[in-house]
């Protein structure tokens, strides 16, 4: 199984079992192949790797801690005082407050090395846009971020930050899927000058592999830190899944370790049967989207169903082809968590650990509520705390106010 | 590593890097840096207190009893004539108890180990010393020469600023003292959020005092504190801002001193707070010394930090106070301008007086009433300043300048554009001073600037003013 995975990343078809691939117009194939070649070169280029290591250490702030969440652990103990041990991989402490920067800085450095002058990226919630704009500012690259007008309104602070970094923001009608299409169009306009910086592990080969590779620092550090802390490996690794980059970032290191359980948690939004969710693994069917074959949320006519989640970064109708493969072969398990459960998890972790996780990461944390009761005493659970939740404070505030009003209305009847 | 409580604080903090079989070569645990070393109390004969009010700068050796420089503070909590314990009788015992607890923890390995672990895994230390290549380029002269600018990345700490270093240590200290209740004051909310954060982490009851006016301006921070489980109490007296919140917090402490620990947010207040808060932030300077050695085999030439109450500056400076070849530069808020009457440049425009339990420079009018300060950055908006800064200024060991709101906003934009780092508006004051400093520096001078906090909290304010 592992060999299949390794082979997939080297071959130019970029297949993970039946998923992945390069479903793109002819104009892009040469370009993508060039990118794949360059990427393979930097993987073995010690000078590039050394420079990247310095950037990750001094600019991004790595390595991020593996934090033992004592009070969260206590919270999940049963009445006999038994339960698993919960550790948080603190990607929220990265520069920019999320894991996105690991990939953005590495790819921006790759773009510079390839002699590109302009970086183009699409962003939904804005996290990837902000990370890319920051990396481009540092490396003195021109930066164009494409964003759907609906998202621009919802994420105005992220838009402001991108502007502060000096990026040009191009607005398109619609949301992330429309922004992605426009970003690719811009890239094609000037393939010699432009570099398309994919934000997550989707898209045509080699994008999923590049993103996964640059995010895999998360899992590598986790292995080393687990060894230092308890002389072993994690038993269970949990991560939220939107398109899959933070999950792959922590899973990848452990794919070959059969004794490490890999759990991805998707957004069930208003409920898995409500039609308003982003649970691609749970409810999707196989199709081709943005250049790759994967599960995706589409209706009977093959039209994309607009996803929904309170964790805006999880709102993507597709999902990483590599994760699809892991699901199909039974190597990783996928579950879902509703908006409300995620919001409650945000509040819990805030209160007991003084850490406010991003609403996206709160989905992974919410799943602990279902996971922990089944685990033997002392099981080592590592949750990828993929981002910080200051950005979500207003959303949580509104939710809590509405809840108060609702309960007040109920009691007064 | 053996702990040493020598009388000279900086010599005891020189790093001994021991590589045990279990510690990887490349990662040095913060435990090497935060063994704080409070100065030994003098014997009972204290030096006489000098009350000269001259504003002339002088060389350290000419003006000051060397013992005063060495023992910062003395057993009365004085830094020269500054500092002390100007508090009601009810608080004296608590302060003495606090000091005794603090000193005993200096030799408590278990406490140190626990604090190390929290600073590493919870706060995210050590923070990097980042070479700001494009900022350095920006300050090069036409002939390509100029200083090298490094940023000490306190913005990367959990909660986004240096404040947490002190909050975490004091919460741990409070627990050791058996206190179940924590109080704190806050202006814009940063210290309040840091305090509420550590109380959540340690399961302590938390009450934050905040001026009613500030609560209105910072409603999101108020919500964050409540989300973290803290109670936020509005203070309506006076101008309903930070100084009033501080007074109210002190009043609460007087009433509840048995059960309550007061987490003061800066190097101000009565002894032992200025010393304690400095020691808890001293990890910043200790890491910087080691990182400077790793990076260029030497020390920084110039240290620059913004000064509100003064905690981030003392945290960086303290390690190097006795290194005469290291220049220490503090940058205050000149607000609308030093002559506008709307600023917070205490060390430039203030007079000596007593505020919140300590003698220090402060902004007061001819009737001794506190002048309401102003700065675009709420964290620098304090009419006093830590007594140790007042002392360092008077003896000429540290230099203090000021930067206007406008200059700070330009610096905010500049660092964002050049390095992809959005600095807090407070920090932006230090960054703005580079415009004046760098043209005067010889080629290759190593400048370390304390990037004390990140600026996403300030984006809305900045954008309004910058009209982007």
UniProtKB/TrEMBL annotation, chain B:
**Cofactor(s) for this protein?**
pyridoxal 5'-phosphate
- State the Gene Ontology BP annotations: L-tryptophan biosynthetic process
Signal peptide (UniProt feature, chain positions) = none
Q: Spans of biased composition, class Low complexity?
A: 1-13
Q: Which UniProt keywords apply?
A: Amino-acid biosynthesis, Aromatic amino acid biosynthesis, Lyase, Pyridoxal phosphate, Tryptophan biosynthesis
Q: Where is this region: Disordered?
A: 1-30
Q: EC number(s)?
A: 4.2.1.20
User: What's the protein called, per UniProt?
Assistant: Tryptophan synthase
| Organism listed in the record | Erythranthe guttata
């Amino acid at each position: 199984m592992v060999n299949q995975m390794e082979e997939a990343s080297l071959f130019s078809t970029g297949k993970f079992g039946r998923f992945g691939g390069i479903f793109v117009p002819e104009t892009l194939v040469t370009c993508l192949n060039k990118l794949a070649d360059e990427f393979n070169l930097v993987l073995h280029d010690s000078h590039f790797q050394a420079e990247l290591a310095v950037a990750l250490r001094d600019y991004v702030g790595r390595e991020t801690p593996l934090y033992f969440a004592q009070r969260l652990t206590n919270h999940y103990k049963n009445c006999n005082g038994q339960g698993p041990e919960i550790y948080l991989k603190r990607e929220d402490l990265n520069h920019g407050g999320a894991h996105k920067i690991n990939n953005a800085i590495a790819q921006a450095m790759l773009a510079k090395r390839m002699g590109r002058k302009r970086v183009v990226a699409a962003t939904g919630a804005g996290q990837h846009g902000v990370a890319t704009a920051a990396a481009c500012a540092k490396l003195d690259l021109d930066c164009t971020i494409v964003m759907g007008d609906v998202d621009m309104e919802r994420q105005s602070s992220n838009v402001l930050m991108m502007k502060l970094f000096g990026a040009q923001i191009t607005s398109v009608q619609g949301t992330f899927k429309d922004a992605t299409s426009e970003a690719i169009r811009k890239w094609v306009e000037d393939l010699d000058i432009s570099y398309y910086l994919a934000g997550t592990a989707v898209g045509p080969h080699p994008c999923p592999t590049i993103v996964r590779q640059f995010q895999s620092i998360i899992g590598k550090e986790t292995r080393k830190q687990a060894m230092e802390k308890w002389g072993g490996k994690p038993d269970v690794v949990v991560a939220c899944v939107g398109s899959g980059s933070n999950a792959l970032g922590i899973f990848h290191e452990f794919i070959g370790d059969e004794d490490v359980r890999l759990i991805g948690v998707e957004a069930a939004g208003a409920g898995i049967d409500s039609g308003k969710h982003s649970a691609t693994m749970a409810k999707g069917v196989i199709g081709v989207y943005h250049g790759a074959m994967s599960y995706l949320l589409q209706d009977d006519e093959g039209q994309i169903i607009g996803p929904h989640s309170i964790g805006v970064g999880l709102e993507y109708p597709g999902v990483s082809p590599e994760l699809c493969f892991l699901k199909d072969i039974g190597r990783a398990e996928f579950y879902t968590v509703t908006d409300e459960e995620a919001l409650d998890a945000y509040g819990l972790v805030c209160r007991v650990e003084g850490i406010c996780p991003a609403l996206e990461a709160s989905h992974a944390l919410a799943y602990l509520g279902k996971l922990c009761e089944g685990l033997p005493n002392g099981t080592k659970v590592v949750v990828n705390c993929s981002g910080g939740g200051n950005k979500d404070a207003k959303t949580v505030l509104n939710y809590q106010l509405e809840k108060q009003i609702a309960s007040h209305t109920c009691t007064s009847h | 590593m053996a702990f040493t409580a020598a009388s000279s604080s900086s010599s005891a903090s020189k790093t001994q890097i021991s590589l045990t079989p279990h510690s990887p070569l490349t990662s040095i645990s913060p435990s090497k840096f935060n063994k704080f070393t409070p100065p030994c109390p003098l014997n009972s004969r204290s030096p006489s207190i000098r009350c000269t009010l001259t504003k002339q700068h002088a060389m350290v050796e000419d003006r000051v009893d060397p013992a005063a420089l060495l023992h910062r503070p003395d057993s009365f909590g004085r830094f020269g004539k500054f500092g002390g314990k100007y508090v009601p009788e009810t608080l004296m015992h608590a302060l003495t108890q606090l000091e005794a607890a603090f000193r005993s923890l200096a030799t408590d390995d278990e406490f140190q180990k626990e604090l190390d672990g929290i600073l590493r895994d919870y706060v995210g230390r050590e923070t990097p010393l980042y070479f700001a290549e494009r900022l350095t380029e920006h300050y090069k002269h036409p002939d390509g020469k100029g200083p090298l600018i490094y940023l000490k990345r306190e913005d990367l700490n959990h909660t986004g600023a240096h404040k947490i270093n002190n909050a975490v240590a004091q919460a741990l200290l409070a627990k050791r003292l058996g206190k179940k209740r924590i109080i704190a004051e806050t202006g814009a909310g940063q210290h309040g959020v840091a305090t509420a954060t550590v109380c959540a982490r340690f399961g302590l009851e938390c009450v934050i005092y905040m001026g009613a006016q500030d609560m209105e301006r910072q409603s999101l921070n108020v919500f964050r504190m409540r989300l973290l489980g803290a109670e936020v109490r509005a203070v309506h007296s006076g101008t309903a801002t930070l100084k009033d919140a501080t007074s109210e917090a002190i009043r609460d402490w007087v009433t509840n001193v048995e059960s309550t620990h007061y987490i003061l947010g800066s190097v101000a207040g009565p002894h032992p707070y200025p010393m304690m808060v400095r020691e808890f932030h001293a990890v910043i300077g200790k890491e910087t010394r080691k990182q400077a050695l790793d990076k260029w085999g030497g020390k920084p030439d110039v240290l620059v930090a913004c000064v509100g109450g003064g905690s981030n500056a003392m945290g960086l400076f303290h390690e190097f106070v006795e290194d005469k070849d290291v220049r220490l530069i503090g940058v205050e808020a000149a607000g609308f301008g030093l002559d506008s009457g709307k600023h917070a440049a205490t060390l430039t425009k203030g007079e000596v007086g007593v505020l919140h339990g300590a003698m220090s420079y402060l902004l007061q009018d001819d009737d001794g009433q506190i002048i309401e300060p102003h700065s675009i950055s709420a964290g620098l908006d304090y009419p006093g300043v830590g007594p140790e800064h007042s002392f360092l200024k008077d003896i000429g060991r540290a230099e203090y300048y000021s930067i206007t709101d406008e200059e700070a906003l330009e610096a905010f934009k500049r660092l964002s554009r050049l390095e992809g780092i959005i600095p807090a508006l407070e920090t932006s004051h230090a960054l703005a001073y580079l415009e004046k400093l760098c043209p005067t520096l010889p080629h290759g001078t190593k400048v370390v600037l304390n990037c004390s906090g990140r600026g996403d909290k300030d984006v809305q304010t900045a954008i309004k003013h910058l009209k982007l």
